[in-house]
Each structure stands twice: as C-alpha cells, then as structure tokens.
Amino acid sequence: MTVLPAASLNDPAESFYSHWMALNDWLREHRGFWQPAPFKEPEPPWARQYPDLARLIAKVSDEQCQILEDAPARLAAMVGVQVPSLARYEHLTAVADLRPAASEVSQATLPEVRAADMPGRKRGQSGAFAAAIRPLEQSVLDWCCGKGHLARTLAAVCEEPVQGLEWNAELVREGNRLAVKYGDAVSLQCQDVLAEDLVLPPGFHGVALHACGDLHRGLMRRGSEAGLPRLSVSPCCYHLTDADTYRPMSRRAVSHNGILLCPKVTCALRCGKR
Ligand SMILES: C[S@@+](CC[C@H](N)C(=O)[O-])C[C@H]1O[C@@H](n2cnc3c(N)ncnc32)[C@H](O)[C@@H]1O
Predict the structure, then answer these.
(1) Which helix (H) or strand (E) holds 246?
(2) Which partner for 236 in 148, 183, 201, 271 could form a disulfide, CB atoms 3.0-4.6 Å apart?
(3) What is the rounded distance in angstroms from the CA atom of residue 232 to the CA atom of residue 105?
(4) What is the set of domains in the chain, with CATH numbers?
(5) pLDDT tens profile 125-155
(6) What sign results for the dihedral spanned by CA atoms 155, 158, 162, 164?
(7) Stated pTM of the model
(8) Residue 244: which pLDDT band, with cuts at 50, 70 and 90?
(9) Is 140's C-beta closer than 6 angstroms to any atom of ligand 1?
C-alpha cells in the first residue's frame, strides 16, 4: 500500500469520501475476481472471461505466489498487463500518512518494566494507538479492554481516569490487580458491552483496540447515540457479525448509488500480523 503525505489532503472529509467512492466502485466492478471463494471452483467465471490472465496466473509458482501475496502492488502491475483496470489497485489503496513519529510512539509506549503480562506486540500496538490519539482531553472508556493493556497505556498519557469494560471476569480481576500494582488510574468493570441496558458514562472518549466485528460497531453505534464527544477505534475481524452482510455504517456511504454490500464470508480480512 502506498502512503501519501498528509499534506496532500485539501478538504479531508471530501477527499476521503471521493477516494472511498472510487475504491467502492472499483471493487464492485471487479468483484468477479475476489468474491468467489478460492479453491471452491476449479474454473471460476473470471478465468473463462479472461483466458490470457488465467494462463498467466496458472504459471505463477508457489514461491512467487508467496512473494506476490506480500506485495499486492506487484501483483496488480503484473495482472494489469492483461486487464489494465486492475493496475489501478496501487493508486486506489494509497492512503494519507497520518502515523505519529517514531519518537512520539516510543514516548507513549509503556516501558517494559511496567508492561507485565503484556506481549511485545501488544505493548507496541497500544503505544502506537495512544500516540495516534493524543492529546487526550476527556476521561477514557476502553471498550472490550481485556486485561487493560491499552487502558494502562492510555492512563500514563491522560490526566483523567481510564475505565474499561470487559466481560471476562478473570481478565477484569487481573487487569485491576496490575493497575493497583503499578499505581495506574484505571478501573476495569465486568460488563457485556452488547447488553441493550448498558448506559455509557457521559462525556467519555470511547476507545477500542481489536474489538472484533459487532463489538467495534457496537461502540460506534452506542457511542454516537449517547453523544460521546470522541470515539477512536482500531477495528478488526469485520466478518464477526450476526448480520449476513457487511454494511458500511456511514450515512453517506449507505446512500451511495452502487454501494458494495459484502456477504460476511468475504470480509474475513487478515488481522493476524498486520
Ligand atoms: C481481541 S480482544 C482485545 C482486547 C484488548 N482490547 C486488547 O487489545 O488487548 C477482545 C476482547 O473483547 C472481549 N469481549 C468479547 N465480547 C465481549 C462482550 N460482549 N462484552 C465485553 N467484552 C467482550 C473478549 O473477552 C476480549 O478480551
């Protein structure tokens, strides 16, 4: 994925929306390539429609396959020779570089000595998330907080207390124990965040890291209904939803003529090491 400098955005909302529309329309136009489940059909319809492309793909070795999987822009350039519109992949997936500087991330990351029970990648992810949403001006509500790794990371860079909601009582107990041990202004509560009778504390900044599917959608829905002043989510596992079809949440996206609605099986994006 190409990363554009942030300064290339003039009106961020408009530019985001027109970019999103172009990507939506391109995905819809090419869904014959990506929607059929791999290895389910010996000859998917696109192979009959584009026999030269099918021959090119059939020659790709397992080793090349691995390389191309990690370099989708190279794959797009290769298949773009046969189907030129596929080469637009790189342009359409280019996003503005809004990442904080490495020094800001390292400043917001809990030092290893305070990161008890926190796997290395979780420590780095929580620090990057915290750096990306600073400054924190409201009390923070960590949605599906697990053991509170993010909550404890945020508490170190936030003047206000941090609360966490998590339904696993064992994680809540452990998280509260760690917060007390390290003197963090963090309190975790046992709560099913999907319970309809949940009342969100007013004025809080809702955050969610790796809250899968319906969980992050729940924060976005409940948080906006409750008028929370700010929501920051780093979502994952879009296919983990009770709905059969993935639907965008934005009103503007939903009203777009030609909105792409995906059966949830095709939304199982790779979340593992990204
Ligand atoms: C992938 S983990 C992420 C944990 C944490 N945010 C982090 O990044 O370390 C998802 C968490 O959501 C919790 N969870 C799942 N469903 C929930 C629900 N309905 N209510 C509250 N917590 C839930 C799980 O127990 C788990 O701790």
Answers:
(1) strand 245-246
(2) 271
(3) 16
(4) 3-96 (no CATH), 100-236 (3.40.50.150)
(5) 999 999 999 999 999 999 999 999 999 999 9
(6) negative
(7) 0.87
(8) confident
(9) no
Q: Is the CB of 164 under 6 A from ligand 1?
A: no
Ligand 1 within 6 A of CB of 167: yes
pLDDT recorded at residue 274: 44
Closest C-alpha to 158, from 236, 232, 217: 232
Average pLDDT over residues 210-217: 95
End-to-end alpha carbon distance in the chain: 12
- C-alpha–C-alpha distance, residues 75 and 34, integer Å: 14
Which atom of ligand 1 lies nearest, measured to the CA of 193? 20
Among 144, 174, 221, say which to mutate for ligand 1: greatest number of ligand atoms within 8 Å of CB: 144
Report how far residue 161's alpha carbon sits from residue 213's, in angstroms, rounded to the nearest whole number: 27
Going from the Cα of 108 to the center of ligand 1, the distance in angstroms, rounded, reads 22
